[in-house]
Fold:
Amino acid sequence: MNEKEALKAFATGWRSPLDVLSDAAGMSVIDLCHEGLDATMAKTIARLADVYCTDTNASRKQAAVCAILTAMEHTFNTMNEIESFVRKLRDKNRKWELRQELASCAPVLRTLRKRARELVAEYNGDTAQNPEMKLSSKAVPDSSLSDMKLRGPAHLVKAAMDKATSFAREHGIEPAEALLRLATSGDGTGPELAPAIIVPLNGEALSWEGAGPDKVRLALTNGTVMTGADFVSAKLADAGFALLVDEITGEDLELYRLRDPNNEQLGPRRFATLKERLRQRLKTPVCAWPGCGKPADECQMHHITAYKDGGESEMDNYTMLCDFDNGRNDDDRDRPRYGHIEKIGGLDYWVPAYGGEPELNMHPAARGGAIRAVREAAGLPVHL
Structure:
């Protein structure tokens, strides 16, 4: 009567792998496959046989380990697991020491792996030093979003995530937005902003003219004359900044600060003034280069005609470019490579190096620049 002899024979061989490995010593993977083993098992047996059942310079250590493996009834799986950790050792002279330690463990994979990780870390001298903490962001192309990447202490990350998730659930917003709101304010309302209002002339002024540095005078349709500052004050109440623009020509006439009117420091005329930087940011809220979403606050004031080539430090010669695009802009038009920025109809266009149609940056934030915004609001074409 068959009393599951095949199963018993398999279990015996599985529980006594060294007997099988001894028979397989010196055989190739192909030879083992010819004996009826599949390729995966044949490779495992050939590898283990080479370690435990062939001649070695550490024959006494090999014999001692084999004796322990037999006594503890290790299987092919646990022996293969031992070898996977042996391969992680930096000091190969300690291979048999690690094998002996792990052979003394019970033939349970979870227990074996836990002990193996501890020993490998100890033998390799791993101090488990934390990598450098990092924080970076990157604009998402063709959107008003940015990706933020953060690496910090695990307990603080977990606490921040928990707080953001709870706040998001309470206020019906996305956890990512909740995290940023909490990070930029104590109560989750977000950062305090100084709003800027774009004020178009809207046909109320027949003409305008410069009236000295940083001043403009308007001739109104009712026959009176008033300054740009008075015009803006008549239009607005409490706001942060107001940029007065001519939606037809694309010129920004003046920037007015409506709150906290402190004197602003002026830089040397090689560089843009603080007021000029604010004006340009309102017109170019992101880098002017097509496809770039680098915010203006992180960009550089770029002279469209280079200062070294006689370009003046004034508004009609400025744009905003990120450090990367500013670095590759073709300041020398006679040696084109990447193209350059030109101001056309009050807007900042990228002109290809070797010909082609000039391009505007169509990033969503770029479309909200002051000149483009007032033209759209007035029903005028953006491209004049």
Q: What stands out?
A: Confidence is low (pLDDT under 50) at residues 260-268. The CA atoms of residues 272 and 313 lie 6 Å apart.
